[in-house]
Write a structure and sequence with these properties.
The complex is a heterodimer.
Chain A: E1 2-5, H1 10-14, H2 17-30, E2 35-38, E3 52-56, E4 59-63, H3 71-76, E5 88-91, H4 96-99, H5 117-122, H6 127-135, H7 137-146, H8 159-167, E6 175-180, H9 189-196, H10 198-212, E7 216-221, H11 226-241, E8 257-262, H12 272-279, E9 303-307, H13 308-320, H14 322-326, E10 329-330, E11 333-334, E12 336-343, E13 349-354, H15 359-366, E14 376-381, E15 388-390, H16 400-405, E16 414-419, H17 424-438, H18 444-461, H19 466-483, H20 487-491, H21 493-502
Parallel strand pairs in A: 1-2, 6-7, 6-9, 7-8, 12-16
Antiparallel strand pairs in A: 1-3, 3-4, 4-5, 10-11, 12-13, 14-15, 14-16
Chain B: H1 9-19, H2 26-37, H3 42-52, H4 56-65, E1 77-82, H5 85-89, H6 92-102, E2 116-121, E3 133-135, E4 138-140, H7 145-157
Classes of the chains: A alpha/beta, B alpha+beta.
The complex binds flavin mononucleotide, iron/sulfur cluster and FE2/S2 (inorganic) cluster (FES).
């Protein structure tokens, strides 16, 4: 029997993976061939999706991007034994794009059957949890702290310190909440883990629950990810059937269970306190801090809120030890960052690497420049609230502090590449418009400022008192930055100010006739 | 899409009751109501307010806060077109505007025959395959004008 891997990942499905899997099954049956199709996660080489992999004695040989129309020729060329074909990319693990990476959080993603507990365990799964049970809760918190892991949701807050704060609260009901809202444009790493290695997230949550003394977890997933919801719900059920969720997990005496909850299309619900309000069944309006969610969180109880990647990296830290993780990276940015390469790009995908890699190397080398073949003009890093960086800053190393020093942010690690046709005034306007659409409405600078921002940029686009309106726009940005309660209003100026700073000529073009 | 069932208070109460064991049941209830009836009508909001023991105004505030919930039914199918940055880098804004103009629609509107509602969406996590769209629950990468027009036809058929 030959094993064939075809991803169930939403991006692969968007490029026809479901139809492809059906066609491969049908063709194999018609030819009387004995094959097993495993729906795996994505390896992250998204420009090759759907990527079929065939298990051969030499390793897993890849064919991609494969369409239904290629299926007959694939069988004819003997792809079940790794035969030559124009789509053959060789052994996937040996592919230069894979080999350059350091896969830590994503080590199993695309490799295993995401819905097989046995496969997960065969690849090191639950080893971290077993070690956690042996170490005892305080040592687990200590280990996560020592690893230097910083939250991957954007703010980069040390995960271990957050856990300790909750662990130190008086015993009683405590919650583990995973932020799977992933609303930033250009990000898809949370989605890929939840589809490709969902049990690592579940294991991370159990470890967290054990460490802080909480028995209940929630994953808050955005509604824009229907495929993910299906896969992740199935993973929860598999884990429960195998005894990894529920009462007295594997005889440890520890109880833990979890639920998947679906959001309802509000970006601001990715902000942790707004997320908690939403989970409680209220409007997703941001809470003032303090109190921190660690002290007064979900239903008023101490709560850890962590991003998917932060949580899914914990099992590996427990399995291999804090030092192993802390030895990677640069400065205070320890470990690896799963870069999400997107936009107008040749080789888009998920590339996990140690911190410190220069921005230009990511864009020109790893991503291969633009898909349109035109010169790169700007890269937006860190989602819709992130700055637009020009080619002249391509030396910048990917690390939290280096980016902050250039008034920009890493955020969740998404990079969106633009070619020279982009109009930066339009993008600045869009940044403000997005803030206006998604503002929770609690504070004036964000609620009103973003709307005024759109109006002011429209005046600039129309060539009306350009210099005066640019000054007004800067002033608005300043007010939003320092007067907003949360980072939605507080960071919305980043794309606008960076566009103004790095692409001033775009703002001073002859009046545009009302485009669009 | 689901959501063809005619609204009844009784059925709404059943759906609400089925979720009352959850902590923070409001969002799961709203999703379930919308899946059943295709929308969350005012009467359902009233039923929820009474079951959750909060004021109707408060419940109304919750429903209207979220982009996903709507008070009257949408088309039989929904097409969500991404207009976030990554998709814009591949010309999504122009493509979407031309598509809307061709079909004499604006964002959030439904075709006159009730077959298709067009909504903007801000990132589908398909950004390496921009521009992207979501037709009902089916993700589509590298979407072009021909595909979009095909979906309008497909929606009419069913
Ligand atoms: C407007 C806004 C949106 C956010 N969206 C997300 C998100 O989608 N996912 C996420 O993990 N964090 C998001 N955050 C950050 C969270 O508030 C929080 O810092 C994070 O979930 C903490 O987890 P971490 O420590 O593991 O990073 C957002 C913050 C703001 C202000
Ligand atoms: S900055 Fe905006 S989103 Fe954040 S609390 Fe204020 S109004 Fe709400
Ligand atoms: S920006 Fe369109 S799918 Fe991400």
């Amino acid at each position: 029997m030959t094993k064939i891997y075809i991803p169930l990942d939403m991006a692969a499905v968007a490029m026809g993976a479901d139809r492809l899997a059906a066609a491969v099954a049908k063709e194999a049956a018609a030819r009387g061939l004995d094959v097993e199709i495993v729906r795996n996660g994505s390896r992250g080489m998204l420009w090759l999706e759907p990527l079929i992999e065939v298990e051969t004695p030499a390793g897993r040989v890849g064919y991609g991007p494969a369409k239904v129309k290629d299926v007959a020729s694939l069988f004819e060329s003997g792809f079940l034994t790794g035969g030559a074909h124009p789509l053959n990319i060789g052994v996937v693990d040996e592919h230069p794009w894979m080999k350059r990476q350091n896969r830590v959080t994503f080590v199993r993603c695309g490799v295993i059957d995401p819905l097989s507990v046995a496969d997960y365990e065969a690849h090191g799964g639950f080893a971290g949890l077993k070690r956690a049970f042996e170490m005892g809760a305080p040592a687990v918190v200590e280990e996560v702290t020592k690893s230097g892991l910083r939250g991957r949701g954007g703010a980069g807050f040390p995960t271990g310190i957050k856990w300790k704060t909750v662990a130190d609260c008086a015993p009683g009901q405590k919650y583990v909440v995973v932020n799977a809202d992933e609303g930033d444009s250009g990000t898809f790493a949370d989605r890929m883990i939840m589809e490709g290695d969902p049990l690592s997230l579940i294991e991370g949550m159990i470890i967290c629950g054990y460490a802080i003394g909480g028995s209940k977890g929630y994953v808050y997933l955005r509604s824009e990810y229907p495929v993910v919801a299906k896969v992740f719900q199935a993973a929860i059920e598999k884990a429960r059937e195998a005894g990894w969720l529920g009462r007295n997990i594997k005889g440890s005496g520890f109880d833990f269970d979890m639920e998947l909850r679906i959001g309802a299309g509000a970006y601001v619900c990715g902000e942790e306190t707004s997320l908690l309000e939403s989970l409680e069944g209220k409007r997703g309006i941001v809470r003032a801090k303090p109190p921190l969610p660690a002290h007064v969180g979900l239903f008023g109880k101490p709560t850890v809120v962590n991003n998917v990647l932060s949580m899914a990296t914990v099992p590996m830290i427990l399995e291999k030890g804090a030092k192993h993780y802390a030895d990677l990276g640069v400065g205070r940015s320890r470990g690896t960052m799963p870069l999400q390469i997107a936009g107008n790009v040749k080789y888009g995908g998920l590339f996990e690497t140690d911190f410190g890699i220069p921005l230009g190397e990511i864009v020109n080398d790893i991503a291969g420049g633009t898909r349109t073949g035109r010169p790169v003009k700007a890269v937006q890093v860190g989602g819709p609230l992130g700055a637009y960086l020009p080619v002249s800053l391509f030396d910048l190393p990917f690390d939290y502090e280096a980016f902050a020093a250039k008034d920009s942010l890493i955020g969740h690690g998404g990079l969106v590449i633009f070619d020279d046709t982009v109009d930066m005034v339009w993008m600045a306007r869009f940044g403000m418009e997005f803030c206006a659409i998604e503002s929770c409405g609690k504070c004036t600078p964000c609620r009103i400022g973003s709307t005024r921002g759109v109006e002011t940029i429209d005046k600039i686009r129309n060539g009306q008192d350009v210099e005066k309106n640019i000054e007004l726009l800067k002033d608005l940005c300043h007010t939003m930055k320092f007067g907003s309660l949360c980072a939605l209003g507080g960071f919305a100026p980043y794309p606008v100010e960076s566009a103004l700073r790095h692409f001033p000529e775009d703002f001073r073009k002859p009046a545009l006739e009302a485009a669009e | 899409m689901a959501g063809a069932a005619p609204y009844s208070d009784e059925r709404a109460r059943e759906i609400i009751a089925a979720h009352m064991g959850l902590e923070g049941p409001a969002l799961p209830i709203l999703h379930a109501l919308q899946a059943e009836f295709g929308c969350v009508p005012e009467s359902a909001v009233r039923e929820m307010a009474s079951a959750l023991n909060i004021s109707r105004a408060e419940m109304h505030g919750v429903v209207t806060f979220y982009h996903d919930f709507h008070s009257s039914p949408h088309g039989r199918h929904t097409l969500k077109i991404c207009r976030a940055e990554s998709c814009q880098s591949m010309g999504a804004e122009k493509q979407a505007n031309e598509f809307l103009a061709r079909n004499k629609l604006e964002w959030h509107q439904t075709t006159p025959d009730g077959s298709l509602t067009v909504e903007p969406v801000y990132c589908l996590g398909l950004c390496a395959h921009s521009p992207a769209a979501l037709y009902d629950n089916e993700p589509i990468g590298m979407v072009d004008a021909e595909t979009l027009d095909g979906l309008v036809e497909e929606a009419k058929g069913k």
